[in-house]
Design a protein that fits this description.
One of its GO terms (molecular function) is ATP hydrolysis activity. The structure is a single chain. The chain has about 240 residues and is of the alpha/beta class. The protein has a single domain, classed as Rossmann fold, CATH 3.40.50. Helix content is about 35%, strand content about 25%. β9 and β10 form a beta hairpin. It binds adenosine-5'-triphosphate. The site of adenosine-5'-triphosphate has 12 residues, from α1.
Length: about 240
């Protein structure tokens, strides 16, 4: 086999996050996510999943330790530079889609480019719109779409700037089982077809089982790293941790 160079999309080095009041939400977390990997982050409520995502994505800063996006230490940038790096190199997908209701589907998808002052790549936007199956809906408002369609708009928006990493926070949490599966199929395809790096926080073992790798958090630490995770194994592990 030919040797390939692996790029690292996201790195955390011994990240500690303590909130005012003394809660140690992250207790020394180190991880490295290779480009083109689909990573799921699981764990009981309060185990630190959202805090990990916020620190890794530059939405928040660690109390100590370092966070990198593609080798740039986002945790040491000031707020303005952090926002710039986030807009240029990070995509987000949220449980409640977070689309702007007054904008068309097309304008929602290209919003990150306008915020970053980046030129639109028409060919890539066309590819994305086709890939998420929204070509016939570009002039609709979000309220005219189903939940699954709205989440597909959010997926296209997250990828429009060709980010180093997409962070997805419970992306299927508001969807029924069939629509959730369609959104997961789409995320899986974007990883497989475009080499997109995806980090997904989820409570759902079936969703996490679509990832290449699952981290299971407990008490602010990574309790397990599971390659090619299987849903029954994840479900058992979560039950164990929740009852400990
Ligand atoms: N802004 C904050 N101020 C104080 N404590 C916080 C804050 N945000 C989170 N915490 C605490 O930090 C710990 C980790 O929270 P976090 O939201 O990262 O967990 P989580 O695994 O994402 O939980 P859930 O699955 O319920 O969303 C919890 O004890 C939580 O109460």
């Amino acid at each position: 086999m030919l040797a390939t160079t692996t790029r690292t999309a996201v790195t955390l080095e011994d990240v500690v996050k303590t909130y005012p009041g003394g809660v140690r939400a992250l207790d020394g977390v180190s991880l490295s996510v290779d480009a083109g990997t689909f990573l799921a982050v699981m764990g009981p409520s309060g185990s630190g999943k959202s805090t990990l995502m916020h620190c890794a994505a530059g939405l928040d800063t660690p109390t100590s330790g370092r966070a990198f996006i593609e080798g740039t230490e986002i945790s040491r940038l000031n707020e303005t530079k952090r926002t710039e790096l986030r807009r240029a190199r990070v995509g987000f997908i949220f449980q409640q889609y977070n689309l702007l209701p007054s904008l068309s589907v097309a304008d929602n998808i290209t919003l990150p480019l306008r915020l970053a002052g980046a030129a639109p790549d028409r060919e890539w936007i066309g590819t994305l719109v086709d890939r998420v199956g929204l070509a016939g809906r570009l002039h609709h408002r979000p309220s005219e779409l189903s939940g699954g369609q709205q989440q597909r708009v959010a997926v296209a928006r997250a990828l429009v700037s060709r980010p180093a990493v997409v962070f997805a926070d419970e992306p299927t949490g508001a969807l029924d089982i069939r629509t959730a599966r369609e959104v997961l199929d789409l995320l899986r395809a974007l990883v497989d077809e475009f080499g997109q790096t995806v980090v997904m926080v989820t409570h759902d073992p079936a969703a996490a089982a679509r990832a290449d790798l699952a981290l299971v958090m407990a008490d602010g630490r990574i309790a397990d790293t599971i390659v090619a995770p299987a849903a029954p194994h994840l479900a058992r592990r979560l039950t164990e941790l929740e009852t400990e």
